[in-house]
Design brief:
heterodimer; A: 175 residues; alpha/beta; Glutaredoxin; 7 strands; B: 153 residues; mainly alpha; 6 helices; 71% helix; elongated
Chain lengths: 175, 153
């Protein structure tokens, strides 16, 4: 009986490692940008092309930057969550239309609703690279000093918003 | 007929023309890009290098690297640029840090552990075999069996 003990222990440990591995999401790469100032940019707006948007316009506010695109499947899934957030008005969500076509982006917002006060257009995806974007949708929580405090890769859901995003926003506001 | 064969033979080279153009522009830069891109991970298809991947992001990143090469930035500066944005994960060879120690020395620990286990097992087996006494009767039987085997073969 004793000779089976060691293989059994090794087996259980291995299963433990594999079980933990299964619950991890390989897409969630820890972002080195959290805790760093949001990279500066000035991009044209989606609706009013002659106007621009820059994160510096938002200084003194806690806000979300949501990177999306009309071609992105996860964005569709996330969209109702953003619409509910916009309706509740707890935190402003600014959009960044990533590597998209303007007409398709506008149609998309018309069809699904527009949760953003304004959307900046990153047509070439260059600002996306500065923000380490690799899997839209991505959402950044940016504090009053313009520092990135949180990054969500992939769609937001109600639970994440209620348990993580909104408490964090509240905390950053009170600072 | 000869012409037709020639045209058919030349067709694949036409297909290449689009891709090869950039190489022709600056062969040195393109060699550097290739050299760098096999060290870098594409974040969209995570098990492909930046050189292999056709994901739009990989194309953008290659463009970015090309531009940095054109600006005469060193390999280290280019790698730092990407690590600042995407973290160590973009590197196929993770750097040696406190958080990656286990990653680097783990395989060697397993190897040493295995070697020790093997050594212990072999020594134990050696003892077991040495302790088994063989009687004359058994020796004769063994020889008989062996000679039978020889005859059969």
């Amino acid at each position: 009986m004793k000779r089976f003990l060691l293989p059994l222990v090794i087996f259980v440990v291995l299963i433990g490692f594999l079980a933990v591995g299964l619950t991890l999401n390989p897409r969630e790469v820890p972002s080195p940008l959290v805790g760093k100032p949001a990279p500066a940019f000035r991009l044209p707006q989606l609706h009013e092309q002659d106007k621009t948007f820059s994160p510096s316009d938002m200084a003194g506010q806690v806000w979300l930057l949501n990177v999306w695109a009309s071609w992105c499947g996860g964005c569709k899934e996330e969209h109702p969550v953003l619409m509910r957030m916009a309706k509740a008005g707890e935190v402003p969500i600014y959009g960044m239309d990533y590597k998209d076509r303007r007409d398709e982006a506008l149609t998309w917002l018309r069809r699904h609703g527009n949760p953003y006060p304004l959307t900046a257009v990153d047509e070439a995806g260059r600002i996306g690279i500065d923000y380490g974007v690799y899997g839209v949708p991505e959402t950044y929580v940016i504090d009053k000093q313009g520092v990135i405090r949180y990054k969500q890769i992939g769609p937001l859901d109600d639970e994440l918003v209620a348990k993580t995003i909104l408490p964090l926003v509240q905390e950053l506001r009170n600072k | 007929m000869k012409w037709l064969v020639l045209i058919v033979l030349l067709m694949p080279s036409l297909a290449w023309a689009g891709e090869a153009k950039l190489l022709a522009e600056d062969p040195v830069a393109e060699t550097r890009l290739k050299h760098l891109a096999i060290e870098l991970r594409c974040l969209v298809c995570q098990n492909q290098t930046l050189a292999d991947s056709n994901a739009p992001l990989a194309e953008d990143l290659r463009r970015e690297v090309r531009e940095m090469i054109a600006k005469n930035m060193s390999d280290q500066e280019i790698i730092d640029f990407l690590v600042q944005r995407y973290g160590d994960f973009v590197l196929y060879r993770p750097p040696w840090k406190a958080s990656t120690t286990l990653l680097w020395i783990g395989p060697f620990l397993l190897l040493i552990g295995g070697a020790i286990a093997l050594g212990v097992a072999l020594r134990r087996r050696g003892q077991v075999l040495a302790d088994a006494p063989v009687t004359d009767e058994e020796r004769r039987r063994v020889e008989q069996l062996l000679s039978q085997g020889e005859r059969r073969s």
